[in-house]
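Quick check before the chapter quiz. The format below is the same one you will see on the exam, so make sure you can read both the input and the output lines.
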Amino acid sequence: MTPTKAVWLVARRELNTRLRTRSFVIGTVVILVVLGGYLLLQATLVNGADKSKIGLSGQTIGVAAELKAGASQIGETIETVPVADPGNGRQQVAGGELDALLSGNATELRVLVKSDLDEKVRALLNGIAQQQVLNAKLVEADQDPAQVMREVDSVQVQVDRLEPADAGSGQRLAVGLVMVFLLFFGIQAYGSSVAQGVIEEKASRVVELLLSTVRPWQLMAGKILGLGLVGLAQLVILAVGGAVMASAAGVLTLSGLAAGAVLWGVVWYLLGFFLYATVYAGVGSLVSRQEDAASVISPVTMVITLGFVVGFNVMIQSPDGTATRTLSLIPVFSPMLMPGRIAAGTVAGWEIGLSVVLTLLAGAVFTWLGAKIYRNAILHTGSRLSLRAALRG
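Here is the expected output.
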């Protein structure tokens, strides 16, 4: 049997075993349902975040046009409703049917709210009242308010930009953060599965039968390849499904952003998984009982989790900051942070190239170490084998 065929036979065994399990199918469906619910919630919140319903009673009905015109200038949507009975309007505010109820007159507006008034709406109402007072004073001074306001409005602040504004920066950052999470989930979950699979085979003594047919490195490579492809299949399903649902919900509107994020996510998943998988396989071979699995898996998982938590937070604070750029070039963090920065549009081409090279070099070192540990420890039974003893052989 050729080495390639031996590796593929082991990989195919893992694929057939994992892809057909109910846990894989149900887990993927559940994640998609949760993701769809979250996106629907976000779409509802986004659509309702800048919309207010305001009741107008008495003389305040006259400011309806000014309210709507001012709201459009600040990116808000205000729906005005005439309220004949202030008592009824008060009940509507208490019941949440109205966000606010205006009373009084244009120069002395009174606002009734249930708990708090949106700051943008507050500023808009203040502006309307102040404008009415200003108009009255201009009339008293024998000035034409319309002419004066035209002259005032003609004075605008001049804004000079060093870079063109990116209207989709928020969406890019959101997609980048989603990719960071998905890659953390995929690498950590399926990397742990590699270690768990190695321990199961040692505990059941199946590994002794397998090694009578294939060599240790072929068994390890086949297991990593098979589980890596299972994880890749789930990652693509979640990423594509999430992108389709986000577009349908109106949360994602930038064409091409999702496709690019998925492609780069696949590249960095492969780099990241094979960076960590050999380490997981190596540490898994150190023990022979499932009860000891946590003691060898936890240190590796902690490194990945640390990279995710730190990277996620620095990306939120500053996607192009020094800390984010530095961490994304460190190989153990690159597979999660670099695709997030690429999706966010805050990375230079040379940074991508450098991080790929550094990750490949680190992967080569980790593969050599993991393979050596696996080869020396895979047939060891009984108590846990120390890392030093495994490296010595």
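If your answer matched, good. Residues 169-203 form the longest helix (35 residues).
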